Each structure stands twice: as C-alpha cells, then as structure tokens.
Amino acid sequence: TSDAVLHEKHDGYATVTLNRPHRLNAFNEDQHLRLRAALDDCAADDDCRAVILTGAGRGFSAGQDLSDRDPTLGGPRPDLGLTLETYYNPLIRQMRALGKPIICAVNGVAAGAGANIALAGDIVIAARSASFIQAFSKIGLVPDAGGTWWLTRRLGEARAKALALTAEPLPAETAAEWGLIWKCVDDAELMAQARKFAEKFANGPTAAYALTKHLIQAASTNSLDEQLAMERNFQHKAGQSDEYREGVAAFLQKRPANFRGK
Ligand code: T3D
Which Pfam family, any one of them, does this sequence belong to (predicted)? Predict the structure, then answer.
C-alpha cells in the first residue's frame, strides 16, 4: 500500500502529512484519494477535534504532479476542468466544510494548487523559509483550487493580479504581513506552534468552533442582514449546547472549562 499521505492520531487531534517528498509532495491521484480519505476519517472521528496538515521533506506541496501531464507521451489533451471537478474542487470543499479547525503548517515551498490548498486551511502558519507561488502562469494555466478567491478577498485585486500574473514567490513573512496567512514563524518552531494550536482546539468547544468557522466563511459573500440572521441562528444553536453551559459554569466558578467536544 502507498504512503503518499501519513495520518497520525494524537490525543484529540490528527496530523496529516503529504508524503511524496521526492516530488515536493506534488499531487497525483493516489495522494488526492488518500488525503480525502484521511480528512473523511477526521470528520467522522469524534476523538479528532483539530487537524494539522503539513508536508514531508523540504516542501509543503508543488501542486499537480506534472509528470502525469507530459504532453510528449502522446494521447489526447487532458481535460483539466474534469480533474479540478474530480479532485481539487472536492478537496477544497471538504476542507471548508470540515467541522473542525484545520491548521496548515506550511513547512516549505507551496506552489500551484499546493499553495491554494495551504490557503484553504483555517489557520495557516508558515515557516520563515517557506514561500507561496502562484506558479500556474509559468505553464500556461490559471490559478485554481480557490486561488483567485483567496487572493482577491485577502489581498485585493492589485496584489492578487500581480502574484497570479508574475508567478513570483511570495515569502512567508510578506504573506503574513499582507494578511494572506495567520503567521510566519522560525522554521524550528513551526511544528511546535502547530501542535500548540491543535492541543488548544482539542480541548476547546468543538461545536462552537465549527459554527464560527462557517460563519466567517459565509461573511465574505453575505450581506450584513444575512450575516446577522446567520449569527442569530448559530448563536441560538450554540446557546443550547453543553459546551456553553460548561463554559459559563467554569467562568463563574473560576476554574478552567472542561469541554468534551460532544
Ligand atoms: O493538471 C491538472 O489536473 C490541473 C490542476 C493544476 C494544478 C496545479 O498545481 S498546476 C501547477 C503545477 N505546479 C507547478 O507548476 C510547480 C512546479 N514546480 C516548481 O516550479 C519548482 O519545483 C518549485 C518552485 C515548486 C520548487 O523549486 P526547487 O528548485 O526548490 O525544487 P525543484 O528542483 O524544482 O524540485 C525538486 C524535485 O521535485 C524535482 O525532481 P528531481 O529533478 O529532483 O527528480 C522536480 O522535478 C520535482 N517537482 C517539483 N514540482 C513538481 C515536481 N515533479 C512533478 N510535478 C511537480 N509539480
């Protein structure tokens, strides 16, 4: 069996590692299917309350494995719309829908769809040596895996267009300064920081995190009225939860809350 994706379970969270380091964790079909299966498992497992997504070796992911696209090998031109709809789009939707925080620990270069998969995480922390490259224009493609959406919403049109058209690497530190990601940290600190967040979330109010994630994701396309209505509905739900009862009781009793995530 293949080990294109490693899936380790810890106390309350999982670490999922893209593991084709000889190709900078570029995506082939196997890596797609194994990543999807790992995230499905995280979704179904009540003991998993946060996910770290990272890459093995010196890169996070170099996007599509281009050796699977070699035009000199003959055959018809590939239908890339179909591969997006079959692999990349379901992955991005799966990451956004997952009711648990995903921490992307970007350990090195993230290029093409690899960059945009990293940007689909809820908390994106990058090592100082990492960079984000919208590599698509170098090979005659357009940004995908949500790239045009993340870049435009987080950075605005000027920076989005320049990054996409030039394919210049954006260093992690600039990505953090510009608000494309949450934080840039020293390389040696990356996994410790990611684990710190995962452990916090593994002991936090899981249902409220899921509602919060979905509210914030909806905000960029909702009107204020729609968003206020959604906040009302979600707060109604949160207010009925055991987590809220426990949170308030713990506050009043001046003790740490014991959220069980169920
Ligand atoms: O096709 C569809 O289904 C549509 C979807 C498209 C989504 C996409 O992601 S399209 C964009 C694809 N990705 C790229 O164009 C990036 C290609 N890679 C690079 O530009 C560079 O590798 C990097 C800038 C990311 C890193 O450069 P560097 O100098 O640090 O490393 P390197 O030497 O180029 O790469 C190391 C090895 O990984 C090397 O193999 P070798 O020579 O040691 O045997 C290289 O060929 C391999 N590698 C890197 N990226 C890919 C790859 N092999 C296959 N596919 C890759 N994308």
Answer: ECH_1
